[in-house]
# Entry
Amino acid sequence: MNHKIVVAICGASGVIYGIRILRFLLEKPFEIFLSVSAAGKQVLMHETAYQGEDMETFLRGQGFVFHEKARLRSYAPDDLFAPPASGSFQHRGMMIAPCSMKTLGAIASGIADDLIHRAADVCLKEKRPLLLLTRETPLNLIHIENMRKAALAGATIMPPCPGFYARPATLMDIVDAGAARALDQMGIETKIKRWGDEELV
Ligand SMILES: Cc1cc2nc3c(=O)[nH]c(=O)nc-3n(C[C@H](O)[C@H](O)[C@H](O)COP(=O)(O)O)c2cc1C
# Structure
């Protein structure tokens, strides 16, 4: 099993999904190739306690547990020399969480002018998993068409729509359930309440 995974955080609301996905991944021996867009950084500063520090410092400051073999490698979004920019770099897939309508549009149009768009484009051409946690509401027809195009090209479109059957008690229960369901799509196990658990049914 390949333990390299690509993660991007874009400037849509709900950057906490990307952060909680990182938290789950860092508890395991994953090598994470992370890129945060410029807008992603701004939204992180608005919606979380992030203040512009490097992401590892931020995540450690949040009290996240790092597996001894976990590695977080951060790349600027204009770094087209980073490993995920090439199809020859082997990894298990890419998660963009959250994914803005702008980045969705770039992916659906094949515009690969930054690392996030290029790495997503590479996933599609190499037939690797690409998960887009798209966040916008309501959707216009351009958003819907772009989702259709990206899905036809092989992406998984996964807006963070909460389920309430697990009876979440806190906002973080809701976010973690969404993050865990996104990780399910990548074949990565997490411990959350699931339908079929004795306490739920
Ligand atoms: C606080 C804030 C929230 C935003 N939320 C969304 C959103 O939920 N969905 C979206 O598509 N764009 C949203 N935007 C707009 C994007 O940040 C903007 O389109 C940006 O160019 C996206 O760039 P990126 O995809 O490179 O991160 C938001 C912007 C701000 C400042």
